Amino acid sequence: MSSQRFTRLPPTLRPIVRRKPSPSHGCVSGALSVYASRRCISSNAAQSDAGPGQTRISTVFTILLGVGIATTGCGIYQFYQTFTLWPPAVRGDLRAGIKAKNQGDLVLSERYLRRALETAQSLPLSDFSPEPYLKLSGIAVALAEVLEANGKPEEAYKTYADALDRLKKAISYSEQLKLQELASSAPTSKDTPTHETELVLTGPERLRAVAIACKLGEMADTYQQPETEEEQWLTWAVEELLRTLIDMRQHHKIADATKREEKQKDVQIVLADLSLPKWVTKTDVGAPIEALGRFYAKTGRVDYATTLYLQAISILMPPAGSGNTASAEDSCRVAQLMSNLSELIMRGSPTPDKLHQAEAWAQQALAVVNKTTKTARGNPEQIAGCEETLGAVLFNLGSLREMNNDRAAAKDYFATSLEQSKRMQSQEGILEAKTALRRLERIDRAEATKKTSHS
């Protein structure tokens, strides 16, 4: 976890950038995007199958803005659980490619994985049943990860985009097949696979498309692609996520134009209740929404970002009295989102109402961090996100107390933030906390000098 700060006249708040899951977890997302090391790639991989970004936004926000809640790294499934899932023609190259990757030989890994992907794409889908698109896209993801790690971001970007394009075409054709099946009233049993049933994508296959779109959005940001391109990937990811949840809830029922309001109402129920099947987790649902929220926060569309952050919080944090509890990792992510909400509220001209709301969210973030670190003590990996978040939360509370002219409390928060930043070896956090403390000391000295001169 790392914290990214924005420049503003002091005192200032710090938004938090969430670290993507590590490759060891089998995720599409790689390391955190570090702005100082950003490079440019030239790519036409983003094929715009919709109008301008603002038009596509309306689809998401027609649904999300109506939810009415008062309050990445997009995950991806491990695809090589066992190499016996793959046909013999692919298995050898795939095994060798993964082995070379784990041994750090990225050139050799690329060679084997590229050959495995080319072979896989030449074979019939039936060779990869069940869930052929999950396996095929998994090979593409493995290759793309190696390419990016080996300093070939443009090739990696194209590999991800090609994989997503195949999935999008499959999703489109899958929907046509399901409609034909409903129209004919002759459902095909999944127990007897045919060419048609293999083309009907499962939930995990559609979530794979969502995860790859999130990764493309991350790369578009990291490698300085146009903002419209980043927005396109992330918006599609959220839209497809919502479509998948709708289909899951409606059990493949047809919803025509006259049922659109009912369909949107159904999404609200899905996001609030989250009665999810075993193949989808809260992280799967929350990560794309959170990623799009970060994009809108970065581009100054605060209302959109706020709505999406609230959605992500509601997904990750069970409501009080529900009897459910969030995992330590999810709780830490919630604390990050709450802290970011606090920062979003304070953008623009501060008002007493904004200060009150921002401080309330920051205090909630601190409470979540403290509770999580206490209950999950002894599991440092689970609370790593909270430890990284704590320094920024304390700094933000100090800034808010300073804005309220409570310099004594501000000093305490800044001092505690400084100690936490030192413990986490965050040079940026140390510098900002020290700067804030020196600023308050100068103000105190100036006021003391002024009182002395008047006495």
Automatic annotation (TrEMBL):
Gene3D superfamilies xref list: Tetratricopeptide repeat domain
Superkingdom in the source lineage: Eukaryota
Entries under InterPro entries matching the protein: Mrg3-like (IPR040201), TPR-like_helical_dom_sf (IPR011990)
Name assigned to this protein: TPR-like protein
Protein species of origin: Neolentinus lepideus HHB14362 ss-1
